[in-house]
Amino acid sequence: MGDSCTVDELDLISIPAGTVWKGYLNLVSDGLGNKIALPIIVARGRSPGPIVGLTAAVHGNEINGLKVIHQVFKKLDLNNLYGIVVGLPVVNVPGYLLRQREFNDRFDLNKKMPGAPNGNMSDIYCSRIIEKIIRQVNYLVDLHTASFGRINSYYARADLSNPIIKQLALLQNSQIILNNTGPSGTLRRAAIDLNIPSITIELRDPHVIQKEVVEESVTGIINILKELKMQPGEIVSAVKPAVICSRSYWLYTDEGGLLDVLPNLTEIVKKGDLIARVRSIFGEVIKEYFAPEEGIVIGKSTDPVNQTGSRIIHLGLVEQQVRS
């Protein structure tokens, strides 16, 4: 594999030790017969060690993770790297080019993993990502953000019953960790089903690059490499411990109109607290919404144009609170 080339197979061992390879992996073809290729960055250390995969933009409008991967590779101490780091800055190439969340057949790739070799367009695309790349890694960090019309805190999704996965999540120094095994169809779940410890990191807002959360996530990923003895140096500890949530759910409107969501991200709301108002087009309050129980605001809607059934807040139930 030469530098900055296009390949049909990703052969990590053929990359010279102590180098970084940047190139494209052919996955599928478009309607003109042209290849749709996945951009990939691979850093191979001078000594053997684990293979860590970093994926971003499984949803085409989730850009912060792309910048995180760029910055991680800039910070690698290549001469003292044990093992291999594989970065996929844009998994959903057609969605990224269309500036949309879904693949170009309008399916959500993070509901289609691990795909199918003989399925529809997104099935085959997902299947080839799993078979050509993901199967080769030993650990996976999948980077996401909120979607259009919503914002997220900086939080991790992880199966905390698995001690290895729990440690990966704690090393991120995120604001919140949500205990979540990963729904069927997600890239994280597909990797875990292959016995690859995996976490999902939610990096705030869609289709922007936010320097602060990018820097925090880069620190968290470098922490993982240090924990796995792939890089030298001391692990950077969190200034404030993450809030652990045992589960979470979204609250939805049952009236349409102009939506105003009141709590801030990471705010603790008590049972009965006012969390949102819906107004008519004439400014009159149609309905108010109240917290059904105490929890922390993981994410929230920012879109005021609210049809009946729109999201209000993503409410996390804090672990200690649930146990009490």
How are the elements arranged and paired?
Blueprint: E1 6-7, E2 19-29, E3 35-44, E4 47-56, H1 64-75, E5 82-88, H2 93-98, H3 121-132, E6 139-144, E7 150-152, E8 154-158, H4 163-170, E9 176-179, H5 187-193, E10 198-203, H6 211-227, E11 243-252, E12 257-261, E13 268-269, E14 274-279, E15 285-290, E16 295-301, E17 305-306, E18 311-318, H7 319-323
Parallel strand pairs: 1-2, 4-5, 4-6, 6-10, 8-9, 9-11
Antiparallel strand pairs: 2-3, 3-5, 7-16, 8-10, 11-18, 12-14, 12-17, 13-16, 14-15, 16-18
Helix pairs in contact: 1-6
Describe it.
21% of the residues lie in helices and 34% in strands. The chain contains seven helices and 18 strands. The protein has helices at residues 64-75, 93-98, 121-132, 163-170, 187-193, 211-227, 319-323; strands at 6-7, 19-29, 35-44, 47-56, 82-88, 139-144, 150-152, 154-158, 176-179, 198-203, 243-252, 257-261, 268-269, 274-279, 285-290, 295-301, 305-306, 311-318. The strands form two sheets. Strands 1, 2, 3, 4, 5, 6, 7, 8, 9, 10, 11, 13, 16 and 18 form a 14-stranded mixed sheet that branches. The chain has a four-stranded antiparallel sheet with strand order 15-14-12-17, with no helix packed on it. Helix 1 packs across helix 6 (211-227).
